[in-house]
Write a structure and sequence with these properties.
single chain, about 220 residues, mainly beta, YmcC-like fold, about 0% helix
């Protein structure tokens, strides 16, 4: 399982490449965090189906909820009734940025700094709009030390109808890519980790994401 992102919608697509840190649960909704295209509403539960690109792997599902306090919120995913991931976000006028650092493989992080945006504020979504989330990481693997910069770039393409198990939505289509540049000891880590597409509907959030790794679709939204 995984929702893409360095932001909502990424973990499923890239769960084979990235490992996510976890935190504790919070309470109370945060108005400064709410974004019509990625709502932060206490009590809402999104359920997603994940279909792997490898047909030999089984389809899975997970439930997602968000709770916030002040200018931050947490996003928790559950699968088969058990917690899977908890990701922290900071907010500014609806724009959202992940505060939970990724980790490449079994590298132990010693430093993590983030800049940019994971999800732009809803008024900024228009065809051609772009934004990036950039992580500067340092870590160790056994006796080797390393540094890497991971960039997640998104661009709004257009609005279109998209049909998923939860229904048909008028959604913004977003295209993105993930790239890592760095070195572990003498070994370069420079590589593109793949492209992806996402669809976001106002008042709902992510309804679909697609990459070569998996397709994630909204099954239900309980408010």
């Amino acid at each position: 399982m995984s929702r893409p992102l360095f932001r909502p919608g990424w973990k499923p697509a890239f769960c084979g490449l990235l490992i996510w840190s976890c935190g504790a649960a919070w309470a109370a909704p945060a108005a400064t965090c709410d974004n019509a295209l990625n709502p932060v509403q206490a009590g809402w539960v999104w359920t997603y189906r994940v279909t792997p690109g490898d047909i030999k792997k089984p389809t899975s599902s997970y439930a997602l909820s968000r709770t916030g306090a002040g200018a931050e919120f947490q996003e928790q995913s559950m699968s088969a009734g058990k917690p899977v991931n908890t990701t922290r976000f900071s907010c500014a006028a609806g724009a959202q940025t992940s505060l939970t650092p990724p980790q490449l493989g079994d590298i132990k992080l010693t430093r993590a700094a983030v800049r940019g945006l994971g999800i732009a504020a809803a008024p900024d979504w228009k065809p051609g709009a772009t934004w990036s989330l950039i992580w500067d990481l340092e870590g160790r693997q056994s006796l080797l030390s390393g540094k890497a910069t991971i960039t997640v770039r998104r661009q709004v393409i257009n609005r279109e109808k998209v049909t998923v198990p939860a229904g048909t939505f008028d959604a913004w289509k977003v295209r993105g890519n993930l790239r890592v540049v760095g070195k572990l000891g003498p070994v370069p880590l420079n590589r593109d980790l793949g492209e992806f597409e996402e669809w976001y509907a106002e008042g709902v959030g992510l309804v679909k994401s697609s990459s070569s790794y998996s397709v994630t679709e909204l099954m239900t939204l309980k408010k």
